[in-house]
TrEMBL record:
Residues 11-252 form the ABC transporter domain. One of its GO terms (molecular function) is ATP binding. InterPro entries: AAA+_ATPase, ABC_transporter-like_ATP-bd, ABC_transporter-like_CS, ABC_transporter_ATP-binding, P-loop_NTPase. The keyword Nucleotide-binding applies. It comes from Alteromonas genovensis. This is ATP-binding cassette domain-containing protein. It holds the Pfam family ABC_tran.
Length: 268
């Protein structure tokens, strides 16, 4: 189980001229700092899939990077199975499988070598790595390109190898930043089936997405972030009930939530 409470992260603005027009008007901009994440809280238990939603720039990636220890929060806590991961980042790296939206593959290595390299970094034996790769090659439909160099992979091939690489060590929590962005329908459904399989095994999965159909199909819980703050945190059923099952309307409704009402909506 993972418990996140009161996460916050601000960045120093190096060049205010480079801010977008939207960022210049954003209430999170305070002098020389942009408060990307102001107050984010949610929990995800064994066997649950949590969908993290929010408009562009809401703070989803920043939040997921803090969970994965790639970024250190300014305040707040992250507990995995009761362990404080901010105090024990190495424990966290063993327990979490993180798919970042920006990490690339090594182009000169084959798909297999890219995955294997991460397995070695995690201290797995050659035989364990090979067995895991075989299993994931089937689940993620990678057999046809596993021995090819990654430099000419399509987006779908890259994403499948990146996912396999992120979970090679069988982490107890999987965090995926927009896992299906840019993928075609076949690759998307393979990735979704893979998430479903993790769920069936009892592994909690947290993933960010802009695709509400994925949330409807896979998620038990929904967390919506707007301008760096949690504005909704409850079950999929409660999210759906905000607007008689019309997911996009539910989403828009959560964004209308005033801060004063937040404490009523956020149900930790
Ligand atoms: N290293 C950084 N330095 C300065 N500002 C940053 C940094 N990282 C993120 N931000 C800003 O913080 C805000 C939140 O960014 P983040 O990438 O977390 O949003 P997001 O919800 O993942 O958006 P999207 O849906 O577009 O991927 C954005 O305005 C972004 O420009």
């Amino acid at each position: 189980m993972i418990e996140i409470a009161g996460l916050a992260k601000r960045f120093e603005v190096e060049n205010p001229k480079k801010l977008s027009e939207q960022e210049k008007k954003d209430p999170r901009l305070k002098g020389r700092y942009f408060q990307s994440v102001r107050d984010v809280s949610f929990t995800c238990q064994s066997g649950e899939v949590l969908g993290l939603l929010g408009p562009n720039g809401a703070g989803k990636t920043t939040t997921l990077r803090m969970l994965s220890t790639a970024l250190r929060p300014d305040s707040g806590s992250v507990l995995i199975d009761g362990q404080d991961i901010l105090a024990n980042p190495n424990v966290a790296r063993k327990k979490i499988g993180f798919l970042s939206s920006s990490t690339g593959l090594y182009g000169r290595l084959t798909g297999r070598e890219n995955i294997s390299y991460f397995g070695e970094l995690h201290g797995l034996s050659k035989s364990t790595i090979n067995a895991r790769i075989e299993e994931m090659a089937d689940l993620l439909d990678m057999q046809s390109f596993l021995e090819r160099r990654a430099e000419n992979f399509s987006s779908g091939m890259k994403q499948k190898v990146s996912i396999a690489r992120a979970v090679i060590h069988e982490p107890s929590l999987v965090v995926l930043d927009e896992p299906t962005t840019g993928l075609d329908i076949m690759a998307t459904s393979t990735v979704m089936e893979f998430i479903q399989r993790l769920k069936d095994k009892g592994t909690p999965v947290i993933f960010s997405t802009h695709h509400l159909d994925e949330v409807q199909t896979l998620c038990d819980k929904v967390t919506v972030i707007n301008q760096g703050e949690t504005v909704f945190n409850d079950s999929l059923a409660a999210f759906s009930a905000l607007s008689d099952g019309q997911m996009h309307k539910s989403f828009l409704k959560t964004l209308e939530t005033e801060s004063q009402e937040k404490s009523n909506v956020v149900n930790l």
